[in-house]
User: What shape does this take?
Amino acid sequence: MGTVIEIGDKAPSFSLNGSDGKRHALSEFKGRYLVLYFYPKDDTPGCTIEARRFSASLERIKKMGAEVVGVSKDDLKSHDKFRSKYSLKVLLLSDPSIKTIKKYGAWGDRGLFGVGALRKTFVIDRSGRIVKVYPKVQPDGHEKEIIKFLKSLAG
Assistant: This one.
């Protein structure tokens, strides 16, 4: 279900409301790497692990010239509770219409959990192209994979 995004593709544009009270578009990340991760639901076990680990590694990732942004269909009120409960530092975007989630091919069959948002991550380069796709993410340790990949880009 949905689109298949591949390395080399131009990243689909988006404009979504963020947990910081601002609207965010892909274009504002030009000139930096963007780690755009899609996750099923705020305050669930896997999503909490992933968000906490990204938050703990955020400064290190930023020093590597990248931003980390999470996207789910949860509303901003849910994002606020989630960020507050776990002292999350990562920016979370709300996509209740699931348009962006579908554009990135992060909507589909979740097995026992039915159809919904999939856990996928995309690394977008400074010019807006996809340079890495993680189609099936394991939340525990995913931030280490991202750091390793970002290091490889630096040479």
Helices lie at 45-63, 76-86, 99-103, 142-154.
